[in-house]
Amino acid sequence: MPAGIRLSTAAEAPFLQSRAPSARNLAQPVGVRTCMNITVIGRGNVGGSLARLWRAAGHDVQELGQERGDATNADVLVLAVPWAAIPDALENVRGATGKTTIDATNFVRGERPDFPSLAHQVKSIVGGATAKAFNLNYAALYDEVPKQDVRPGSLFAAEDEAREVTEQLIRDAGLEPVYGGGLENARALEDFLGVLFAWGRGFYRFWTP
To answer: Per the CB 3.0–4.6 Å rule, which of 81, 149, 168, 170 could disulfide with 85?
Structure first.
């Protein structure tokens, strides 16, 4: 495993202990914090948990399920549905065109769509700046995040125009953003899911020496 990367299961330790600053020093996000109007598409474990965390952080959050909804007033869309439901889920949302979008979907099994990544598929439908994020964090552990002494990491890839908002929303969910490059690396993050499945449920942390 490359230097500077460690994984720990919840059974071994609450999370990875690193030389990173204490979470007490990470309470305030880096840079200027903006309260956003967020539309979360998907009310499952991922979408529902993130919506709850962002409301607690002061954001205005709308949750949409299978019913049609309107995202005209949204500053950012967050897509958290099964990968096969991506087209239908987005078609059910009015006012989504051109919005900054965070894709939190994962490919598990079946035949992949004919796109470089699921994030690229999302971008082909919405057309706005796009990021891949939250697909490598266990939603079942979100309630444990505030109990950690150091923020767990959250890998993401993003187009430049979507990077700042994605980093803030990662921090506002109690995680530390780990930039994984542009959207061309979204497929690598989707493929990394197999590593997490093999490792087991827990948190991770990346840092530089």
So the answer is: 81
